[in-house]
Specification:
CATH superfamily of the largest domain: Cation efflux protein transmembrane domain
Strand order of the largest sheet: 1-2-3
Number of domains: 2
Strand content: 5-15%
Order of helices and strands: HHHHHHHEEHE
Number of strands: 3
Largest sheet: 3 strands, mixed
CATH topology of the largest domain: Alpha-lytic protease prodomain-like
Shape: elongated
Structural class: mainly alpha
Radius of gyration: 25 Å
Number of helices: 8
Length: 303
């Protein structure tokens, strides 16, 4: 019991830290968008203005992720018996798509600047982008510890890290422009950044798409589940297993368990508790188990 209480306390502490990280990330990034817009308009820098647009999309994505975390806490009702947990998966998928769209926008802008490079104020661009590295770097670090526990947090982390990379490229570009007047370097660095973002976003897109299609979550191994449940005393077989994500952190399972025909209700109840406890260690947080004495009854079941 104390273990459960400690676990719950630790989980709520994690949620508080994540919430705080989202609020700080949204506030600082929105402030940076305003700085980029004001300076970009003053020095007529297309790269700063396009980066401001990219950052504004990220602010919206962070806000959506925060909303999804809030909706997870909403209690289930008669119309939504699982509550609104699935929103975390949908937001993660949306964020992955936004990242891909931003890659396309960066690529398009970079190719345009290759064809017709424009004179740029390198020093100003470098200074503003330097502020961007600090803001995005600091806020990305807030999500670093929790990023592997939830793909929504990972998407927020990738958004901020990609912004920091874009800012870093702008700083390098700004410095090179000051000394060489090679205006095309800005476009080249933008393309390199786009490739880096694409590489890091691909796994997020794959994971969120899999979860939105009710695929088996990446932190669940079906073979391990079968092996460890079959090893429990009283279990003859396990079949018709279905595993899916209720949210980006909570997984559900339904399965048929073949047991001894002479098992009492008390024994069956104790066995069910034992199986559910074992499943918790295998990243299954919500299990519905159907006990049967023979496999003949479900031989024709498709699901």
């Amino acid at each position: 019991m104390s273990h459960e209480h400690h676990h719950h306390h630790h989980h709520s502490e994690e949620l508080t830290n994540v919430n705080r990280a989202f609020y700080i990330g949204i506030s600082l990034n929105f402030l940076f968008v305003l700085i980029e817009v004001i300076v970009g308009l003053n020095i007529h820098s297309l790269s700063l203005l396009s980066d401001a647009g990219h950052n504004l999309a990220d602010v919206a994505s962070l806000a959506l992720s925060l909303l999804a975390f809030r909706l997870v806490k909403v209690k289930p009702n008669e119309k939504y018996t699982y509550g609104y947990r699935k929103t975390t998966i949908l937001v993660a998928l949306f964020n992955a798509v936004v990242l891909l769209v931003s890659i396309g926008a960066i690529g398009y802008e970079a190719l345009h600047r290759f064809i017709s490079p424009e004179p740029l104020q390198g020093v100003t661009i470098a200074w503003v982008a330097g502020v961007g590295i600090v803001i995005n770097g600091v806020t990305a670090l807030l999500f670093l510890r929790e990023k592997e526990k939830d793909i929504n947090i990972k998407s927020a982390y990738l958004h901020l890290l990609s912004d920091a990379l874009v800012s870093f490229a702008l700083v390098i570009g700004g410095i090179v422009i000051v000394y060489t007047h090679w205006y095309w370097i800005d476009a080249l660095l933008s393309l390199i950044v786009a490739v880096v973002i694409l590489y890091s976003t691909w796994s997020l897109l794959r994971s969120s798409l899999r979860l939105s299609l009710d695929g088996v979550p990446e932190n669940v191994n079906m073979d391990t589940i079968k092996k460890q449940i079959k090893a429990i005393d009283g279990v003859k077989d396990i079949h018709h297993i279905h595993v899916w994500g209720l949210s980006t952190t909570t997984n559900a399972l339904t399965a048929h368990i073949l047991v001894d025909a002479h098992m009492s209700i008390l024994q069956a109840d104790a066995l069910k508790k034992k199986i559910k406890h074992e499943l918790e260690h295998l990243n299954i947080h919500h299990a519905t188990l159907e006990f049967e004495e023979s496999m003949r009854n479900c031989a024709n079941d498709e699901l």
